[in-house]
Amino acid sequence: MDLNDANLQTLTEYLRKTLDPDPAVRRPAEKFLESVECSQNYPILLLTLLEKSQDNVIRVCAAVTFKNYIKRNWRIVEDEPNKICDPDRTAIKANIVHLMLSSQEQIQKQLSDAISIIGREDFPQKWPDLLTEMVTRFQSGDFHIINGVLRTAHSLFKRYRHEFKSNELWAEIKLVLDTFAGPLTELFKATIELCQTHANDVNALKVLFSSLTLISKLFYSLNFQDLPEFFEDNMETWMTNFHNLLTLDNKLLQTDDEEEAGLLELLKSQICDNAALYAQKYDEEFQPFLPQFVTAIWNLLVTTGQEVKYDLLVSNAIQFLASVCERPHYKQLFEDQNTLTSICEKVIVPNMEFRTADEEAFEDNSEEYIRRDLEGSDIDTRRRAACDLVRGLCKFFEEPVTGIFSGYVNSMLTEYSKNPSINWKHKDAAIYLVTSLASKAQTQKHGITQANELVNITEFFVNHILPDLKSSNVNEFPVLKADAIKYVMIFRSQLPKEQILGTIPLLINYLQAESIVVHTYAAHALERLFTMRGPSNTTLIAAAEVAPCTEQLLTNLFKSLTLPGSSENEYIMKAIMRSFSLLQEVIVPYVPTLIVQLTQKLLLVSKNPSKPHFNHYLFESLCLSVRITCKANITAVSSFEEALFPVFTEILQNDVQEFVPYVFQVMSLLLEMHTSSEVPASYMVLFPHLLQPVLWERAGNIPPLVRLLQAYLHKGGVTIANVAADKIPGLLGVFQKLIASKSNDHQGFYLLNSIIEYMPP
After folding, report:
1. How far is the CA of 315 from the CAs of 255, 319, 439, in angstroms?
2. Which one of 136, 273, 362, 541 has the minimum C-beta count within 10 Å?
3. Which residues are CB-contacts of 397 (< 8 A; sequence separation ≥ 6)?
4. Which residues pair with 451 in a beta bridge?
5. H, E, C per residue of 365-408
């Protein structure tokens, strides 16, 4: 593609079409861009458009397209062709920093991401002048440019927080520190001075505080792996200023918004993170500064309100206290009984309360609520931080802390019993307190694995959890119902087996609850209970023990998929899969009805696949029903083919990329189940299409396609030799392509084994 006006015009037209809501217009445009993206000059054309186009929409679209193009193609993969030619790579690196810094913020963010993707591959060896080019821009005095540099540096250095130690990494960090740490410190001091100069100019303060937040994030990334000598020498500068910023309260920066954190909150919460990092990893060096930070953060916690916008700040501040209290040489700070009582009363209990905002999330944004509560993506919630603080305090002061909290739990439960319909939030907080007190160690697979011996888990379950689960109205007090189900889930390894068995019918009942959170928790709890292992590594709960509830279980699981908001609920689908797996032949009588429901669901989601986990468990459930039924009755294969083939045909014809590998897997399973030594005609029709090179271009298709071809050869090597002899060179071509690739050569040999084993000599 030459760099000329005609190509720029063409590209503009196609980019505009990719924004069209009509798939008939959008898809061909996306396909066209895919087909030309390997041409030389394509990325340069995009960058030219994003710089010179008069239409802002096209500029933003070009920026997003460029970033995604870099994301897909910049990395050079062994055995695969280089998708971006060297002159284009050089031109991109020569122009992108300048372009990024001279663009508006929307475009700047996209290009900043692109730079960090390129930097991850090429910096420092293949792009040595990147940092110097960026650092020189600090002198510009223009904070639009400076923030662009800081944002890019942040996305470039962020990975230091989770990379494993290696010589290459340390060499890179040393290079970065030599070039970047000095100018960053000078910029930090200069920005703080400017904040004082412009203390009454709200617009200037907004820009300066967003710079300070980015500088604080860079400080965290550069100090994460080890304490650099430069920062140790300049600790006084950094820590004094951090402390001053933490205690600063500028009325101009306070926002009226109760939801969205303002610049002041974001900066302070990052400083709490930085202080926690030093308290945890560099406690000796940080010792002189620790008392003033503990005081400042304590005051911050006691004076900050319950609004949602302070959540990140409060949770990071509590995490700082948590990291301090579990270090042996800060123990003396917390030994006094009054201090412990004060922490429990002023920090932990208030932040464990179920607020109106939590209630709204529970009802209106259940997916996000579940993700935070069940999957542990609640790192920055107040409750999670308070829970971590309880665990930290229990490390050295288990007895006094348990004693203080037992009093709180009892008084909360007494409040609840006075008037349950009004005081239900007291019980919710009590359950949360007991859970955080009792759990010492926890895993996703087993729930709580080590518990606080001073808390009687079973007694609390019988007195306070079971009555809620046994309530006849599944829709009453949904939050408490969810808490009760979660208690069973978390303490499943600690509760006696008879109690767990007793909860199964109750949990099956809760699959009908209207609340998305409640029926999701019920499905997830059942799935977790069904995977528990007993002493001899068999499942703790046997199929025979669940068999009496089978019909109710399957009916309620499939019914819950029809409840509003749960049509593609991955937890329910996973519970269906796990129930099939546990019950095995017990489900055979129900399969004819179940397979109809599963194929209808498959047809529906294939129109627009959006939940990868849900889709995965859906296909797993289909495979399980095929395996289990055909094990009991091998002739059932044909009825499965009748039910599934129409849907599979539609998926293959519409090239639903996400589902094609699954379809090949299920087809190979069905073909392997056939008892005859011939390949059925319905499969032979498809055989020539399986050798088309385009199918083998997608890495995800290779393992299932190889397995499917192996099934063809196993069942009908002779048939293929007689009927489709012209396809043998195609088979060998596939073998040749596979062994040329390091990641797929083993698949090539699987195929060759089957060719030699099953084809006539």
Report:
1. 19, 6, 19
2. 136
3. 334, 335, 340
4. 439
5. CHHHHHHHHHHCCCCCCHHHHHHHHHHHHHHHHHHHHHHHHHHH
- C-beta of residue 694 within 8 angstroms of C-beta of residue 733: no
Q: With cut-offs at 50, 70 and 90, classify the pLDDT of residue 23.
A: confident
What six digits make up the tokens of 259? Answer: 């939801």
Largest CA distance in the chain: 89
Please name which of 511, 535, 513 lies closest in space to residue 523, comparing C-alpha atoms: 511
Q: How far apart are CA 573 and CA 303, in angstroms?
A: 45
Radius of gyration of the chain (CA): 31
Show the CA angle centred on residue 434, arms to residues 328 and 570, nearest 5°. 105
> Taking Cα atoms as reference points, which of 699, 696, 692, 691 lies closest to residue 755?
691
In tens, the pLDDT along 436-476 reads 888 876 667 666 777 778 789 999 999 999 999 999 999 99
In whole angstroms, give the CA distance from residue 591 to residue 570. 20
Dump pLDDT digits (tens) for 77-130. 877 788 999 999 999 999 999 999 999 989 999 999 999 999 999 998 999 999
pTM above 0.90, yes or no: no
Structure-token match 């600690």, residue found: 494
> Could you tell me which residues come within 8 angstroms of residue 242 by beta carbon, excluding any fewer than 6 positions away?
216, 271, 274, 275
Cβ atoms of 654 and 698 closer than 8 Å? no
> Cβ(489)–Cβ(507) under 8 Å?
no
Q: What is the secondary structure of 248-298 as a DSSP string? A: ---GGG--S-SSS--HHHHHHHHHHHHHHHHHHH-HHHHGGGHHHHHHHHH
Taking the C-alpha atoms of residue 500 and residue 659, their distance in angstroms, rounded to an integer, is 37
Pairing of strands 439-443, 447-451: antiparallel
Distance CA 256, CA 306 (A): 14
Cβ(261)–Cβ(312) under 8 Å? yes
How many angstroms separate the Cα of 622 from the Cα of each of 197, 236, 453, 524, 595? 68, 63, 44, 19, 7
Query: HSE-up of 598 (CA within 13 Å, CB side)?
Result: 30
Confidence band of 669 (pLDDT split at 50, 70, 90) = very high
- Nearest Cα neighbor of 499 from 533, 461, 463 is 461
The angle formed by the CA atoms of residues 538, 541 and 544, to the nearest 5 degrees, is: 105
The answer to whether the CB of 102 falls within 8 A of the CB of 137 is: no
**Residues facing residue 447 across a β-bridge:** 443
* Cβ atoms 49, 96 nearer than 8 A: no
For 533-549, the pLDDT digits (tens) are 887 788 889 999 999 99
